[in-house]
Amino acid sequence: MEWSNDEVIEFLQLYEGYPQIWNLRHPSHKNRNLVHDAWKEIENKLSVKTDITEIKKKKILLWLLIENF
């Protein structure tokens, strides 16, 4: 599924707001339930209707793009 630039920016802004997902030093990072809840919140807030699995795949693809940029 292709996302527009606006949708990618929306995702990145939401993702940034949940440091328990990406910040290894965040106190809740190792709590799988809290991390899962954060992913669910992103899924519910995102204007693109998709599921957590697809969102995580998109995150990996974006990460690879940034790494190779």
Structure explained in plain terms:
This is MADF domain-containing protein. Residues 10-69 form the MADF domain. It holds the Pfam family MADF_DNA_bdg. The protein has 69 residues and is an all-alpha fold. The chain is 67% helix and 0% strand. The mean pLDDT is 87.
Number of strand elements: 0
Evaluate the radius of gyration.
12 Å
Q: What is the overall shape?
A: globular
Give the N-to-C terminal Cα separation.
21 Å
Work out the strand percent: under 5%
Order of helices and strands: HHHH
Give a quick account of the main beta sheet: strands, pairing sense, barrel closure: none
Contiguous low-pLDDT stretches (5 residues minimum) are none
Structural class by secondary-structure content:
mainly alpha
**Helicity range of the residues?**
55-70%
Mean pLDDT, nearest integer? 87
- Distinct helical segment count: 4
Protein name: MADF domain-containing protein
Organism: Macrosiphum euphorbiae
InterPro entries: MADF-dom
Domain MADF: 10-69
Using brief descriptors, characterize the structure shown.
mainly alpha, 69 residues, MADF-dom, MADF domain-containing protein, single chain
In short:
With about 70 residues, the protein is mainly α. The chain has helices at about 5-15, 20, 30-45, 50-65. Pfam families: MADF_DNA_bdg.
Helices and strands in order, then pairings?
Layout (H helix, E strand, L loop, with lengths): L4 H12 L2 H4 L9 H14 L6 H16 L2
